[in-house]
């Protein structure tokens, strides 16, 4: 879809930077120029920050009070209060460096890659999911189900998902004979029940003094008093969505990082040298980030070169408007075409090629100083616009720095050899799914430890981290049990 929209932009946008298309009765203003997107969705955000209805999801905009999906909600009371809560929790987690969850899971992932490299696509998503399950419910064992739940929702909300998102009249067939509606009912009910169960489980553990800090505990302790969240159901939904979105925003860029490094071994070597010099042989941490501009440049260029939300996420106009002499009716969808923004040859010379130097060398239009701060992925068009900008930009950046830094520290990322011919197996550049948030189609590659010493160090780091995690959990449970027994004795 993004390729066709970009092709039409070259043909029809002209100097305006936008064009109108009608698809099955829906009017869509496709925006291909960043300045136009800034005007419409930032400067006029007050009137252009609604979301279009996702037909194949029950009450996606929470018009009827379902309160379930923050990124899809209309601009209503539920959206405003859930956004405030999400922003507060993510900011606090960022300030606390995510309580060590990212480092712990990155070390686990390295060992999984050493032991089973062919399963890297599953373990990559599972790593991102474990981080979010740790932050939200203090339980990384929930990651596999949470990942399936995340992709189930993403598929349901994407134009390339159920046909009822495109041929919307089919959705109105009575549910008893409507396979799409029955499937969504099952998916929806299971997901909401699981989210609610997680919150109730957290409350039960808190009553026993056994629940360690996490977003769910934070809400149950303070959030229900400080926020306008209506109760358990809404709270379970907003916390569940934090977990799901945290998988989406990391798994795609991290998958494309692998593609970038396999195809650009020179840049991989430069990142490895930078990490070795800055960190003196140890695995990099977020404290090292100011000294790792090449790593950050390659992450940012990966997200520019292979954006994981190439169509952008649509806004819906809340009122009639006139823009540059054109009448735009209320209900028009504004589609910020991220693929076009990130292929702008004026801002990004040689846009179709992977050029991290555009962020590192004076003379490029995108170069910024100081290099201890720039390049940063925060503020990229991929994260959306105005009042709908993604709240997880810092989390995404930090997790990518930790994960990509750990990979570069431990492995040489290479094409995998065909055992019969001895030739490199291809890693395609143009194969992906067609969902709203994309990732590469399955491919094969090799994870070669940079040295035996580095491999053994990775194994030791994980063993140490795992032992510490078990010890901390045991000590917490032990202290909780002592306090509980003391309370019972006093009663």
From TrEMBL:
Chain sites annotated for binding heme: 390
SUPFAM superfamilies with a match to the protein in the record: Cytochrome P450
PROSITE patterns referenced in this protein's UniProt entry, alphabetically: CYTOCHROME_P450 (PS00086)
Keyword line: Heme, Iron, Membrane, Metal-binding, Monooxygenase, Oxidoreductase, Transmembrane, Transmembrane helix
GO terms of molecular function: heme binding; iron ion binding; monooxygenase activity; oxidoreductase activity, acting on paired donors, with incorporation or reduction of molecular oxygen
InterPro entries the UniProt entry points to: Cyt_P450 (IPR001128), Cyt_P450_CS (IPR017972), Cyt_P450_E_grp-I (IPR002401), Cyt_P450_sf (IPR036396), Cytochrome_P450_fung (IPR050364)
Cofactor: heme
TM region positions: 238-259
Keyword Cell membrane on entry: no
Family: Belongs to the cytochrome P450 family.
Protein name: Cytochrome P450
Species: Xylaria flabelliformis
């Amino acid at each position: 879809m993004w390729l066709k929209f970009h092709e039409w932009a070259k043909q029809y946008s002209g100097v305006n930077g936008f064009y109108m298309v009608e698809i099955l009765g829906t009017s869509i203003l496709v925006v291909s120029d960043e300045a136009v997107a800034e005007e419409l969705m930032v400067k006029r955000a007050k009137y252009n920050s609604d979301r279009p209805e996702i037909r194949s999801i029950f009450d996606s905009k929470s018009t009827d009070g379902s309160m379930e999906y923050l990124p899809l909600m209309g601009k209503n009371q539920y959206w405003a209060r859930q956004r405030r809560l999400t922003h507060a929790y993510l900011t606090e987690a960022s300030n606390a460096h995510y309580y060590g969850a990212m480092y712990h899971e990155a070390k686990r992932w390295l060992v999984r890659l050493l032991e089973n490299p062919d399963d890297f696509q599953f373990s990559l998503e599972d790593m991102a999911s474990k981080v979010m399950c740790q932050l939200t419910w203090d339980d990384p064992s929930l990651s596999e189900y949470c990942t399936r739940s995340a992709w189930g929702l993403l598929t349901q909300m994407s134009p390339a998902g159920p046909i009822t998102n495109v041929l919307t009249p089919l959705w109105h067939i009575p549910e008893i004979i409507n396979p799409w509606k029955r499937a969504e009912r099952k998916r929806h009910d299971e997901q909401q029940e699981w989210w609610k169960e997680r919150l109730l489980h957290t409350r039960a553990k808190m009553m026993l003094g056994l629940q360690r800090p996490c977003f769910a505990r934070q809400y149950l302790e303070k959030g229900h008093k400080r926020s306008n969240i209506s109760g358990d159901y809404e709270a379970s939904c907003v916390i569940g969505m934090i977990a799901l979105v945290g998988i989406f925003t990391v798994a795609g860029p991290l998958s494309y990082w692998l593609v970038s490094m396999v195809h650009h071994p020179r840049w991989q070597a430069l990142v490895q040298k930078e990490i070795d010099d800055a960190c003196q042989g140890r695995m990099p941490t977020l404290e090292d980030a100011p000294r790792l501009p090449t790593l950050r440049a390659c992450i940012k260029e990966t997200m520019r070169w292979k954006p994981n939300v190439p169509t952008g996420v649509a806004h819906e106009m809340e009122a009639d408007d006139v823009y540059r002499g054109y009448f735009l009716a209320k209900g028009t969808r504004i589609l910020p075409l991220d693929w076009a923004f990130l292929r702008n040859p004026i801002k990004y010379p040689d846009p179709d090629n992977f050029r991290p130097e555009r962020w590192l060398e004076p003379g490029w239009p995108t170069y910024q100083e100081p290099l201890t701060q720039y390049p940063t992925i925060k503020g990229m068009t991929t994260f959306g616009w105005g009042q709908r900008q993604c709240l997880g930009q810092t989390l995404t950046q930090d997790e990518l720095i930790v994960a990509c830094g750990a990979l570069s520290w431990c492995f040489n990322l290479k094409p995998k050899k065909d055992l019969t011919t001895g030739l490199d197996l291809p890693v395609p550049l143009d194969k992906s799914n067609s969902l709203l948030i994309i990732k590469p189609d399955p491919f094969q590659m090799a994870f070669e430890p940079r040295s035996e010493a580095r491999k053994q160090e990775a194994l030791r780091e994980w063993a140490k981290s795992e032992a510490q995690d078990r010890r901390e959990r045991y000590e917490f449970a032990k202290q909780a049990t002592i306090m509980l027994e003391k309370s019972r004795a006093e009663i």
